[in-house]
Specification:
mainly alpha, two-stranded antiparallel ribbon, 2 strands, 2% strand
Length: 349
């Protein structure tokens, strides 16, 4: 038995692989649900019902999906060029912190549309700068960006804690550790009345479409794909690997920073150290389930969001701990990695 690289990967196989990976992860998670004394079919029905069974459930799922789309795009763009950005969580937090600082009182004299645009741009710049550092370290000294971006996550969260207990602490929060709020006039309007779904969801969809255009219809997108596929051949053909990697880093970091701004401007209004339930890390799963395709990121983000939103309802109905959502997400990543492997390789006798 030996592994042989496929000379041609059909579109059908690329589409089927994520579906099989999700089914495999649900099957494996079903074993744990059985051990908890619950029928997996009933548990999964409750998850679907909790995520899509009412208008409120649907809006909550889409609200949770909004930052996941952006962090998933951040991971997908970077991974396509073999820039292993594991720092989406830190970039999310620095974007959120900058959005709160800029949106508190610095822009109140400007028109609302301009002010909101500047808030998001500031958050994007902060996220881009944060990832530019590890990218430069890789290009200049060959330092592994997996390590640097991962460690930066913890440093940034500590920095956020320092700021919301110091210069950016909300004086009207009765001692609660949270940042100064974004002015209410600069927050997103609700897409659906009496829900938390906001205009940030539309921005995330627009971002996915824009990234798809960049990846598939621009010279830079072609260079990024070539750099990720065969760096040596890309360099031989005249592509500047350093400029391409740096451009990818700036785009990836800015998307994760924008996710933080959208969460603050659309949901919470302020920053705490518990703002993210793991949006940056979950974005990696979203990107892998989408096979790094910007369009697929939307579907996979909604899937992951539905698991987390529905798991709470399932837990109340069946008694199965809601932590099963983390298990499903983790298994989805593992099974998708296996699916990607067998998409590129076949077993030969």
């Amino acid at each position: 038995m030996r592994l042989e690289r496929r000379t041609y990967v059909s579109t059908k196989l690329v589409i089927v692989a994520p579906i099989l990976a999700i089914l495999a992860s649900l099957s494996l998670s079903g074993i744990l649900i059985i051990l908890a004394g619950v029928n997996p079919v009933i548990a999964y029905f409750e998850i679907v019902k909790g995520a899509f069974g009412s208008k409120l459930a649907i809006t909550e799922t889409l609200t949770r999906a909004s930052p996941l789309i952006l962090t998933g795009l951040a991971a997908a763009v970077a991974f396509r060029a073999r820039l292993w950005n594991i720092g989406g969580e830190g970039q999310f937090y620095i974007g959120a912190l900058v959005a709160a600082a800029v949106g508190n009182n610095l822009l109140l004299g400007l028109p609302v549309v301009i002010s909101m645009t500047l808030i998001m741009l500031s958050a994007m710049i902060a996220g881009a700068v944060l990832l530019a550092g590890p990218a430069l370290l890789r290009l200049r000294f060959g330092i592994d960006e997996v390590v640097t971006t991962l460690l930066l996550n913890f440093i940034i969260i500590l920095f956020v804690g320092l700021m919301i207990e110091g210069p950016l602490k909300d004086p009207f929060a009765f001692g609660w550790p949270q940042s100064v709020p974004v002015d209410r006039s600069l927050r997103f309007a609700d897409l659906v009345p009496s829900s938390r779904l906001h205009n940030g969801f539309l921005i995330s969809i627009f971002a996915a479409f824009s990234i798809w255009i960049v990846v598939t219809r621009t010279v830079f997108g072609l260079k990024a794909r070539a750099t990720g596929f065969t760096p040596q051949a890309a360099a031989f053909s005249g592509i500047s690997l350093s400029k391409t990697i740096m451009g990818v880093a700036l785009i990836s970091g800015s998307l994760a920073g924008l996710a933080g701004a959208i969460e603050v401007m659309g949901v919470t209004g302020y920053v705490t150290t518990t703002l993210s339930p793991g949006f940056g890390y979950a974005g990696i799963v979203v990107a892998m389930l989408a096979a790094l395709h910007p369009g697929g990121v939307i579907a996979s983000a909604i899937f992951i969001a539905s698991i987390f939103v529905g798991a709470d309802a399932m837990s109340r109905a069946t008694g199965v701990p809601s932590f099963i959502a983390d298990v499903i997400m983790s298994l989805s990543l593992l099974t998708m990695l296996i699916a990607i492997f067998f998409t590129n390789y076949r077993i030969r006798r």
